[in-house]
Amino acid sequence: MAFGIVWMSCQAVMPAVLGRAIDRGVADKDQQQLLFWAGVMLLIGLLQAVTGIMRHRFAVTNWLTASYRIVQLTTRQSVRLGGSLPRKVSTGEVIAIGTTDLSHIGNVMDVTARFAGAIVSFLLVSAILLSTSVQLGLVVLIGVPLLLLLMGPLLKPLQSRSATERQMRSDLSNTGTDIVSGLRVLRGIGGEGVFLDRYRRESQATRTAAVNVAKLQSVLDALQVFLPGVFVVLVVWLGARSAVTGDISAGELVAFYGYSAFLMLPLRTATEFANKLIRGRVAASRVCRVLALEPDVVEPTSPASPPAPASELYDARSGLRVRPGLLTAVVSDQPDDSALLADRLGLCAAEQDDEVSLGGIPLTSLRHADIRERIMVSDTGAALFAGRLADRIDERGNGDVEKALFTASAEDILEGLPDGLDSVVTEKGRSFSGGQRQRLVLARALAADPEILVLVEPTSAVDAHTEARVAARLRAHRDGRTTVVTTVSPLLLDAVDEVAFMVDGRVVAVGTHAELLADVTAYRRVVVRDVEAVL
Question: Which of 84, 150, 417, 467 is most buried, by the most CB atoms less than 10 A from its CB?
Answer without folding.
Answer: 467
